[in-house]
Amino acid sequence: MNNVVKRNMDVLHRIVIPKNMLKEAGIENSSVVIMREENGVITLEKAGKITRNVDELGRVVIPKELREPMGIKDDDQFTVGCKDGKLVVRRCSALAEI
After folding, report:
1. Dihedral sign of CA atoms 24, 19, 38, 41 in order
2. How far apart are CA 51 and CA 70, in angstroms?
3. Alpha helices in 1-98 (DSSP H)
4. Rounded to two decimals, what is the model's pTM?
5. How far apart are CA 75 and CA 96, in angstroms?
6. pLDDT truncated to tens, each residue of the chain (98 aa)?
7. Which of 18, 28, 35, 27 is nearest to 72 (CA)?
8. Chain centre to alpha carbon of residue 6
9. How far is it between the farthest Cα atoms of the chain?
């Protein structure tokens, strides 16, 4: 991944994804995205089973179906990056490398 940034989750379980990373992943504001969890990593891409809208500020809600099994808590910090045309979101406490 070229760029990785840290982001905090707000009280509404949203993280802000930088606009340049959204563009790199082909995701625009108001896009519907797929969110998948595998080995402690959340990936976002267009359309799919668990979908969320990206708002005009680049925020996306991490759904409860992903937060609870991963043990994600309010104010957890995340890294956000792009890999193979997908956004990759990882909780900073996750040990695996993006």
Report:
1. positive
2. 18
3. 19-24, 64-70
4. 0.49
5. 20
6. 557 788 888 898 888 888 888 888 877 776 667 777 788 888 777 654 566 788 889 888 888 877 887 888 888 898 888 888 778 888 886 544 44
7. 35
8. 11
9. 31
